[in-house]
Write a structure and sequence with these properties.
Oligomer: heterodimer
CATH topology of chain B: TIM Barrel
Structural class of chain A: alpha+beta
Shape of chain B: globular
Radius of gyration of chain A: 29 Å
Strand order of the largest sheet of chain A: 14-13-12-15-17-16
Largest sheet of chain A: 6 strands, mixed
Largest interface: A-B, 17 and 16 residues
Helix content of chain B: 40-55%
Radius of gyration of chain B: 19 Å
Number of domains of chain A: 4
Structural class of chain B: alpha/beta
């Protein structure tokens, strides 16, 4: 029996007549419409969702659709057959992607609702109009300035550095004794009393001629120094808005991929100095780049206008930035020089910000749980969570925190930089040109991918690597041990210089003209990274006697792209197999925490509290971590009973697997 | 007062695996060897019978080895020049089955010929090891598997980086495989999963957890085997394969067994020491759950056989 199908697509209509049981994708093809099928029409990706507005169809599989979607008429075109005359609406691709239950988009950065610059900020700008000196009043310039501050703004006993003192005389005279002072107050006055507390110290950061528009930006920056990636946000402290976000690989990578090799390098003659310069060089070039991104009517923004910087980073990175010997971090009993660094200035640590800028290095907990994690706990809200929550930082050091508002335990394990795109032949950061998602057709083993920015691909970023590993595994390109199946019949599977490899993009499609591949070595690095992270949180949960299933939410931090496909991350055994709705992807939680601390002194104090509250669990104390690590060094895991959803996904694929096995 | 011995009731059992096929089953072996099939830790007769006690394989080589101890040359003599004669003598010595280890010098023709000559010289079930280089192993084992279709040989050695070709040819030609992993419970299990994923029936896989000789890490190997056995008895299907270990190879690598000169006088008689080393290594592994021990010296074979007999009777 024949039926008439009418497709509406792109505001155009097309009709076709087909027999009963024709697939919607085939019917659409006959009507001249190609529906995207990245997974090769296996009902796995959900990208071919269409809306049946009229008529009867039969859905063979609805794996990617929620009951609400089906209620609304959604159907997967590759899994749905015609049973009568049908009218179908094909929605634009972006609309479908937003519906997918598997995808977690990184939370947007918004200025905290309670941010009020005059009360929350430790750095502020004040206008002063001084009475010019005369023969009757021969008070010196500095005293005159202090008097004005006291009388006009109740600012008592400010301090001033010698280099700044050298220039105040000329600045005061430049615009007829009208100046703008930038002041740092260690602890701003409370809402209720405008009187500063006894412990308050006040420091003059800069003095500018004339009265600067009070609504013009006052610049600060939040910095996360990762072992692999350094991230910098340039912030207008007046409005609290993040005006530029930039990131770059840490210049220290050339001297070792993990903290241990960096510490060893720093210990060599001149190594410490070199590493300090490398990371401050990275920060300075990021500052430069962030400033260039900002266009203001008042003119250019330059790094020396930045008057406050808040820095998060692991304990080793902090030591290396400050030029403090880090060797004790890696030697028993693993004690760093400092967990709570004192306040510093830009000049002290060699950043190209204003030399007097307030530089605040956030406090850490221990040698292997640094300020990146205390900042991450703050920004993820873990320390105020009612129910038990797991926070994972999918970064080079794989820190994990478990807890709620009553208790917090933490551990760290060396995961390596693979998920940040380093240590992988064609890996890259999640920027323009990075492949961020990949689907492999289970029949032909041909991939479909999406590139950030939409141009030619340059490499693969963290989220792309997660989806590639998962797709290669599910379609049988690699086995559970990560071995490339060289007997698979596809030109994309081949023997490379380092063993088996899979070609994601042929040279003709790529920016460089070279093939983009994933090699056996890359796969090993990714497996080790995911195994370390999985082992870290399972051992931590075991240690405190909390079964993972009882964890209310899993918060995932990491700088591997703007979104993560939770299903893929579960399929490779990076994340625990639980309901997708329990995962939240927070992006770079460390820089976000630094941003909150930059804005508000109360948030800054909360980080100190968090650092005090966290209990550190040393994973190397017994064998349980190693045991958990080797059992996680498999896809998805040696103990398949921990991954029921993956077992299910695999069992529906068995026929597809054997079809190309010789 | 009567003492009640506590008994464990295990939910899992060791899988029954048969090596070799007689003419009734499409092979030419005069006997077969069956392993596993029990539900207890080794020799805990009060819990459950040890239905198939451990067996002894003797290792022979396709060419006379140049790196074995003089004591082994003395024990075997001229038969080492011909795998068929060596096989016959090993059978007479009391082996339950044979291991034929190929060498890198063997061409495909040499290897196939050696295997066939061993099969016709001895009726015992046979395990064939490639020389231990992935490419060469695959090159030799595929034609051997095809030339001996239906014999239920054990082909080895599969490792996690090189198992596909060996498993595929074993599956196609009715043989078994030996799956070796470096002394780790999880790795053993993982390789078993990988091999089963290819469609290999589980009763055609032997686990080789690797071990060390007495004084050279045996306690680590012992512990891994014991944990594998406990996991199997607790019902983990991927650790229930019978275990094969190579105490002969390990013990004869040690300085104590291999050389008689330039060692302290207090070490005593060389030959006695060497055989003790191999025997004690093998017995410790049998106690930890080994189902097949691969030995080298005829005297060790005699002693281990006697010890197994006593343990079975006890």
């Amino acid at each position: 029996m024949n039926h008439t199908l009418t497709f509406t697509h792109d505001e155009k209509q097309a009709s076709v007549t087909v027999p009963t049981n024709t697939l919607l994708t085939d019917a659409a093809h006959l009507a001249g419409i190609d529906i995207t099928q990245p997974c090769g029409g296996q009902g796995r990706c959900g990208r071919c969702a269409v809306m049946v507005t009229e008529g009867t169809v039969r859905r063979r599989s609805t794996l990617r659709l929620s009951p609400a979607d089906i209620e609304q008429g959604y159907a997967l075109a590759c899994q749905t057959v015609v049973e009568g005359d049908v009218e179908i609406f094909i929605p634009p691709q972006e609309k479908i992607e937003r519906r997918l239950t598997t995808d977690r988009v990184v939370a947007e950065v918004t200025v905290p609702a309670d941010y009020e610059y005059p009360f929350a900020q430790t750095v502020r700008r004040v206008h002063l109009t001084l009475t010019p000196p005369s023969m009757d009043d021969q008070t010196d310039d500095w005293s005159r300035l202090q008097t004005a501050l006291r009388l006009q703004h109740r600012i008592e006993n400010p301090t001033c550095s010698l280099p700044l003192l050298r220039k105040i005389g000329s600045t005061l005279r430049q615009d007829d004794w009208r100046v703008t002072a930038i002041i740092e107050t260690s602890r701003p006055s409370d809402h209720a009393t405008t009187r500063p507390s006894d412990h308050t110290t006040i420091r003059l950061i800069d003095l500018l001629p004339g009265h600067v528009d009070e609504y013009s930006p006052l610049w600060g920056c939040a910095i996360d120094i990762g072992t692999t990636t350094v991230t910098l946000w340039l912030v207008d402290l007046v409005t609290g808005q993040v005006r530029a976000q930039v990131a770059e690989y840490n210049g220290q990578i050339a001297r070792g991929e993990d903290v241990i090799s960096r510490i060893i390098y720093a210990n060599k003659n001149g190594g410490g100095d070199e590493l300090r310069q490398r990371v401050s060089g990275t920060i300075n070039s990021l500052l430069e780049l962030a400033c260039k991104r900002i266009k203001l009517p008042q003119g250019k923004v330059t790094p020396d206008q930045v008057v406050k910087a808040t820095i998060a980073g692991n304990t080793t990175m902090m030591h290396l930035l400050l030029g403090i010997p880090a060797s004790s971090i890696r030697l028993s009993p693993f004690v760093p020089t400092v967990n709570h660094p004192p306040m510093m200035t830009g000049r002290d640590i060699g950043l190209n910000v204003n030399p007097e800028a307030a530089v605040d290095c956030l406090p850490g907990v221990a040698s292997y749980v640094g300020a990146d994690i205390t900042a991450g706990v703050l920004s993820s809200g873990l320390d105020s969570a009612e129910n038990v929550t797991l926070f994972l930082d999918v970064g080079t050091n794989g820190e994990t925190v478990l807890g709620n508002r009553d208790w917090l335990v933490t551990c760290a394990c060396s995961a390596g930089p693979a998920f940040e795109g380093a240590g992988v032949v064609n890996g890259m950061r999640a920027t323009q040109g990075a492949i961020e998602e990949i689907w492999i057709n289970g029949e032909t083993l041909e991939p479909t991918y999406r590139v950030i920015g939409g141009g030619k691909p340059k490499g693969i970023c963290g989220s792309g690597l997660i989806s590639l590993l998962s797709e290669a595994f599910i379609t049988g390109v690699i086995d559970k041990g990560g071995n490339v199946n060289l007997s698979a019949r596809s030109p994309r599977v081949r023997e490379g210089a380092h063993g088996g490899e899979y070609v994601v993009a042929w040279g003709a499609e790529t920016e460089s003209g070279e093939d983009i591949v994933i090699t056996r070595v890359d796969i090993d690095n990714l497996l080790r990274a995911k195994a370390a992270i999985y082992a870290g949180f399972t051992v931590l949960a075991e240690n405190v006697g909390i079964p993972l299933e009882t964890v209310d939410k899993v918060l995932v931090g990491g700088s591997f792209g703007k979104y993560i496909n939770v299903e893929k991350a579960v399929q490779i055994g990076l994340l625990p197999d639980m309901d997708w709705s329990r995962f939240e992807f927070l992006g770079n939680t460390s820089v976000k925490g630094a941003y909150y601390a930059l804005l508000d002194w109360r948030k800054r104090e909360r980080i100190t509290e968090i650092a005090k509250r966290m209990t550190y669990i040393e994973l190397s104390a017994d064998n349980s971590f190693y045991e958990a690590f080797t059992s996680a060094l498999f896809l998805p895991h040696t103990d398949l009973s921990k991954f029921p959803s993956v077992v299910e996904a695999l069992s529906s694929k068995i026929e597809g697997r054997t079809s190309f096995d010789r | 007062m009567p003492i009640e011995i506590p008994k464990d009731k295990w939910p899992g059992s060791i899988r029954t695996v048969t090596i070799g096929a007689t003419s009734a089953d499409g092979g030419t072996r005069s006997k077969t060897v069956t392993l596993g099939g029990y539900t207890t830790l080794p020799f805990m007769h009060f819990e459950a019978p040890m239905s198939n006690p451990p067996v002894i394989a003797i290792e022979i080589k396709s060419r006379k080895p140049d790196d074995w101890s003089p004591l082994l040359f003395e024990a075997w003599g001229d038969v080492m020049n011909d795998p068929a004669q060596w096989a016959k003598k090993a059978e007479e010595t009391g082996a339950d089955l044979l291991v034929l280890a190929l060498t890198v010098e063997d061409s495909v023709e040499d290897a196939v010929k050696a295997v066939k000559s061993v099969l016709s010289a001895s009726g015992l079930p046979l395990i064939v090891w490639g020389p231990g280089q992935a490419e060469k192993d695959n090159e030799l084992l595929v034609p051997i598997a095809e030339a001996t279709k239906g014999e239920r040989l054990v082909l080895g050695i599969c490792e996690d980086k090189n198992y596909r070709t060996i498993v595929a040819t074993a599956m196609a030609n009715g043989h078994l495989v030996q799956a070796r992993t470096p002394m780790d419970v999880n790795l053993s299990k993982q390789l078993n999963i990988l091999i089963s994923d290819m469609g290999m029936p589980k009763d055609r896989i032997l686990m080789d957890p690797t071990t060390g000789a007495l004084g050279y890490g045996i306690e680590y190997g012992y512990s891994v085997m014991e944990r594998l056995r406990l996991a199997a008895l607790q019902g983990d299907a991927m650790t229930q394969s019978p275990m094969i270990v190579t105490p002969g190879f390990e013990a004869w690598k040690t300085k104590e067994a291999k050389v008689g000169e330039g060692v302290p006088e207090a070490w005593g008689d060389w030959k006695a020491r060497a055989i003790n080393w191999e025997t004690l290594t093998a017995m410790a592994l049998i106690e930890s759950g080994a189902d097949v021990v691969v030995l080298r010296h005829p005297e060790s074979v005699r002693r281990v056989r006697e010890a197994i007999g006593e343990l079975v009777m006890a």
